[in-house]
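Input structure tokens:
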């Protein structure tokens, strides 16, 4: 969202409100009706000013966080996904963002929210396409994320991986249980049974998630 587009939006809303106020004031009214109308006008003006202030605050925050948002999306999307999106945009440059606004665009906006980029729906609706375009063309060596955002990125990739292929995770857990049972049958020790089972499950889950996330990031 550029400053000029935001200013234009506010000016349009303000002009409409002023036009509505003038229409109200031109109507024939009694003194009580006019006093009531003036109070309603003052309330509307106050609400409009508050709305404008909130929008400007969100815009300033967005401009400060925009480079991080672009880097986050560039790190989140795999190389294969980026190539597919670029091809779709080149094939339908005018239609891609309109068609994808409520599907891929909504998914993208939700990922930004999960990463901690909290904005109202109007702001994200206006900026997601520009963020995506910049992320598609951001070189890998220019992706810069602070440690806390890297951790969130890892957690999001891991959760997406589980949602994308839950069957693989169930098979992995089942295989670990079988391997653990065979291993623990040899030990014949109750403490070793519990401890070894936990260690094997944790290690297997970590290795599986690491490999899956590395595959998704290619």
């Amino acid at each position: 969202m550029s400053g000029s587009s935001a200013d234009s939006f506010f000016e349009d809303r303000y002009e409409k409100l002023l036009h509505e106020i003038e229409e109200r004031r031109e109507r024939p009214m009694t003194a009580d009706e006019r006093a009531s109308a003036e109070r309603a006008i003052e309330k509307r003006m106050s609400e409009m000013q508050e709305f404008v202030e909130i929008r400007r605050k969100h815009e300033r925050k967005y401009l400060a966080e925009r480079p991080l948002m672009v880097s986050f999306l560039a790190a989140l999307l795999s190389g294969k996904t980026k190539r597919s999106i670029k091809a779709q945009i080149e094939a339908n440059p005018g239609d891609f963002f309109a068609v994808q606004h409520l599907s891929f665009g909504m998914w993208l906006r939700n990922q930004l929210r999960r990463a901690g980029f909290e904005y109202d729906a109007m702001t994200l609706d206006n900026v997601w396409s520009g963020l995506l375009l910049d992320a598609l063309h951001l070189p890998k060596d220019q992706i810069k994320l602070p440690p806390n955002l890297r951790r969130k990125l890892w957690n999001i990739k891991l959760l997406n991986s589980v949602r994308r292929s839950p069957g693989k995770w169930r098979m992995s857990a089942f295989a670990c249980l079988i391997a653990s049972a065979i291993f623990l049958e040899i030990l014949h020790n109750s403490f070793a049974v519990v401890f070894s089972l936990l260690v094997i499950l944790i290690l297997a889950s970590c290795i599986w998630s690491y490999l899956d996330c590395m595959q998704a990031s290619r």
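DSSP finds nine helices and no strands in the chain. Residues 158 and 183 are 28 Å apart (CA to CA).
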